[in-house]
Amino acid sequence: MATLDSSLYVRKGFGLKSEVQATLAADYDGRLVDLMRERDYTLEAGGLTVRLAREFGFCYGVERAVDYAYQTRHKFPDRTVWLAGEIIHNPHVNARLREMGIGFLSATPLDAPGARDALPAFDYAPVRPEDVVILPAFGVTIRDFEVLRALGSVVVDTTCGSVLNVWKRVEAYARDGFTALIHGKHYHEETRATASQVQKHPEGRYLVVRDMAEAREVCEYIEGRGDRTAFLAKYAHAASPDFDPDLHLVRVGVANQTTMLARESLAIADEVGAAMERAHGTEHRAEHFRSFDTICSATQDRQDAVKALLEEPLDVMLVIGGYNSSNTISLAALCSERVRTYHIESPEAIDMERGVVRYRPVGRHTEEAEARDWLPAGPARVGITAGASTPNSKIGEMVSRLLAMRGVEAATLA
């Protein structure tokens, strides 16, 4: 990785947590959420039983990233402060940062020549040396670091520690001559940053697979049943520029975007390892295949908590979080297997006047859909969880709207 001048590179904040704490609490804390915790994560009123998963919302990495962004604005009130993309994938949090006067740098289009490796992930043209640049919780690519070093601006790095752990794993794969097979979304900021870690070594290679279906296509190729031309065409956008499946699927190390569905990441690793064993034998697998569980603990905790909640009888499940939040999408996918589920981006998605809920259908990258009669009449049990980038204040607002649909004012609950 390109190193930055230590006097310009900040990774541990500015020691201003106490100065910004009151503002953070006012923006993101939620009274109703605190009340639900006190009542065994349950509220009962107006014929509704509202159950909250025991792990939800802001994780440590998100809290840290948002805290550092607030500290940066407090530290440099008169400087131009930029954010490389979004600090996290939550529209409310990013809107609040814009209100604070933080500018957002645009992403480099993925179809731009050299976008995967030659260009930085973000456009730094507006940045001056005297400005301050905040790096998001997802991290940025090695090329971004190189551009920032040349610019000479102050850089505040909020990259999550769990992401850094994956980077170390991918870099080790590249160092030892293994292709990094990454379970993730090739266009996601985190995966782009993770894939770039192979550039620390001249022979480093990567390939990104979105899901088990794509992983099985990789397995087919490993076992000699793939079409080279078709494979290269399909994965051109998701592989290192000079990727050659005949050469670079001989030694493979599996990693993942930290917010993917944990069980699928583990299953993909098992599938690829088994394919290598079928193709070349047990000894080959032992020497040429590596795998480590790099799902972050917060993602795992939230997935485990929602699975526990789904063991209870529920009529409907609400999952709140950004539509581009991978960990929220994973939670919604888990829930939809057991109960009618609505992935909503904000409490405003519950339209009180029209009696509808606006939501993103699970498993589809489509426009919002609307549902009427989504909340059963009479007694009903509603489950709630939230992605790791969703603040408690938004969870509380959603609960308040649910109660209001049954004529209950949240303020009357002691």
TrEMBL record:
InterPro entries: LytB/IspH
Gene3D superfamilies on file: 3.40.50.11270, 4-hydroxy-3-methylbut-2-enyl diphosphate reductase, catalytic domain (3.40.1010.20)
UniProt keyword list: 4Fe-4S, Iron, Iron-sulfur, Metal-binding, Oxidoreductase
Pathway recorded for this protein: Isoprenoid biosynthesis; isopentenyl diphosphate biosynthesis via DXP pathway; isopentenyl diphosphate from 1-deoxy-D-xylulose 5-phosphate: step 6/6; Isoprenoid biosynthesis; dimethylallyl diphosphate biosynthesis; dimethylallyl diphosphate from (2E)-4-hydroxy-3-methylbutenyl diphosphate: step 1/1
Coiled-coil segments on the chain, per record: none
GO molecular function: 4 iron, 4 sulfur cluster binding; 4-hydroxy-3-methylbut-2-enyl diphosphate reductase activity; metal ion binding
Entry-linked CDD domains: lytB_ispH
Cofactor requirements of the protein: [4Fe-4S] cluster
Biological-process GO terms, alphabetical: dimethylallyl diphosphate biosynthetic process; isopentenyl diphosphate biosynthetic process, methylerythritol 4-phosphate pathway
Domain of life of the source: Bacteria
Protein name per UniProt: 4-hydroxy-3-methylbut-2-enyl diphosphate reductase
Chain's gene name: ispH
